Amino acid sequence: MSASWGKLFFQLVLLLASCGHINTKTPSPTSPSLDPISPLPSDIRRVVLKGESHTEKVELLNPVDLALECIWSGNENKSPNITGYWRKDGEEMQSIRVTVQLENDKYTLRQVFKIVSKENLGSYSCSFGDEAKVDFLLAGPQIGEVRDKPIVSYVGDSVVVKCKMDEKKPKPVSWNWYRANGTDKEQIFYAAEPQKYEIKNHEWATKLVVHKLTEGDSGFYYCEGVYAVSTTMGHVELKVITFLEPLKPFIAIIVEVIVLVAAILIYEKSQSKKNSAGGNETNADQTNTPTPGDNNGPEESSSTRQRKA
Hints:
- The chain is an alpha+beta fold.
- It has three helices and 17 strands.
- Strands 1, 2, 3, 4, 5, 6, 7, 8 and 9 form a nine-stranded mixed sheet that branches.
- A hairpin with a 2-residue loop joins strand 12 and strand 13 (184-187).
- The radius of gyration is 49 Å and the shape is elongated.
């Protein structure tokens, strides 16, 4: 009995010793380290409206907290206050309709917009009731070179389509190419069709090479310069023709000349036939008409017979 108690006592001692090495303190939860969010740079665009409307273009490349400010001197009947509100792409923005007080003989409407992606670009309009407004067009820089006439190439050849930014503008981060597909645009991935397309980018410029042209390659091609929050797009029209295409005007002229010559020959031939037919009728009339000698012959013979009698 004592042996069993000793064994139990020894097990209890071992259990207590093992528990002494267990850390009973609950560790505090460690929150993941978060990178500090740097505030966006600020910019302001101010327009002093003298008439009833004005359009201001704003070129944006990077994320920004953009303050748009409209100052209007009002009309002849200046009210002590007027309702001001903002529109985005023609639709009124919610919770931005305010009462604008007349201060220093002017109305001032100001709002800060956070521009962090190209979805935030577009048309922002500040309106003073239904009497005056200012349109701010937020977009990326425009393509420097614009080609009005199409590029003409031949079936089976290769063609180079170019787009170039003004070197006074910042360089695009990247370039993309699209092809018109009905009412939509289809992006060109040259890696998927290396035998057909080739794209060469060089800072402010980009080139699209189209190989083995067919008439189906005709259409509009769009180049897109990509910036941090905006894009800029230009377009070029490509017209693919066959080698017979330039000869069509000359062929048409030759056909017209042949038709005209044939008509002249037919007319002259018909006239010669009429003339020859008229000559034959005249000769026949002359043959059938009796001569004066022939007419007098019978009379003379009858008178001679009378004398003999």
